[in-house]
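FAQ

Q: What does a record look like?
A: Structure on top, sequence underneath. For example:
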């Protein structure tokens, strides 16, 4: 990530992340740059003693006024991932109110790959670059295990729910750098409809969670049996989804779908649930 001199770094949905503060500190010079941390939930905001860092409690789905700056860098670490779970209307409000239309470089760290998120960005920005920024294989996962670091990637669990990383264990995320906002292919008034179409197509047609291969894999994983809800959640959802769709959310939706308290599911029920959930 290369930042211009004296940037205004705005962290969209900072949570407890110190990424923007770390970026500011890495710039070196005492006066170089400012950071504004934004979140609507102030409870976990990182503490900072640097006068160049400030916090703004605001809703990113609404327009937020920012100070004038020639070198504006918008940082989004997994906030887009969360907003995507709210649907096309929220994604459109977020982007049109606080990303597009600003003369800025927008950096987005996401668990979503090019087919899913890159496709949206490449229709909204003049230029989009993407790099894979993290990848862990079995050896790394095993090192995590030794250090007793909790890690719940579904590939890292065996059929009994025990942490058992193998060579299939991978965890990737992506860094997108988007420039030239407001100069993309989709016109402002069609953005929401286009995003909706893209998400619908993706979930209905390309959703790997209910592809035939995935269903086969789940059958093997379940060994024809019935698993506790927690074990189902661990195996079925990827890291990105689990970071925003917790076990409690899953349990709540399964029980609403079933209309009763549920402690476990058979694989056929999981497949049905995943179809309904789309
Ligand atoms: C997945 S977390 C990522 C937090 C942080 N960037 C990190 O990397 O740890 C998403 C963050 O976005 C914030 N957020 C979600 N929707 C928001 C909104 N409409 N307005 C402001 N903040 C929001 C949440 O409070 C949360 O802190």
């Amino acid at each position: 990530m290369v930042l211009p001199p004296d940037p205004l770094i705005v962290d969209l949905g900072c949570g407890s992340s110190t990424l923007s503060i770390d970026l500011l500190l890495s710039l070196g010079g005492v006066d170089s740059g400012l950071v504004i941390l934004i979140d609507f939930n102030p409870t976990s905001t990182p503490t900072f003693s640097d006068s160049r860092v400030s916090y703004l409690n605001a809703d990113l789905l609404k327009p937020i006024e920012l100070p004038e700056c020639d070198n504006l860098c918008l940082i989004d670490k997994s906030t887009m991932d969360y907003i995507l779970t709210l649907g096309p209307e929220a994604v459109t409000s977020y982007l049109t109110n606080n990303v597009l239309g600003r003369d800025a470089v927008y950096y987005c760290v996401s668990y979503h790959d090019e087919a899913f998120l890159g496709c949206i960005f490449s229709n909204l920005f003049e230029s989009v670059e993407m790099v894979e920024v993290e990848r862990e294989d079995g050896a790394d996962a095993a090192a995590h295990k030794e250090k007793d670091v909790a890690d719940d990637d579904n590939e890292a669990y065996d059929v009994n729910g025990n942490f058992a990383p193998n060579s299939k264990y991978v965890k990737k995320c992506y860094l997108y750098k988007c420039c030239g906002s407001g100069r993309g292919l989709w016109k402002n008034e069609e953005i929401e409809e286009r995003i909706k179409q893209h998400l619908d197509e993706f979930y209905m047609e390309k959703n790997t969670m209910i592809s035939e291969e995935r269903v086969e894999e789940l059958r093997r994983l379940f060994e024809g049996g019935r698993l506790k809800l927690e074990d189902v959640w661990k195996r079925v959802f990827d890291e990105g989804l689990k970071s925003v769709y917790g076990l409690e959310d899953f349990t709540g939706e399964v029980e609403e779908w079933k209309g009763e308290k549920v402690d476990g599911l058979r694989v056929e029920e999981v497949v049905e649930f995943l179809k309904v959930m789309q």
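Q: Is there anything notable about this one?
A: Residues 146-154 have pLDDT under 50 and may be disordered.
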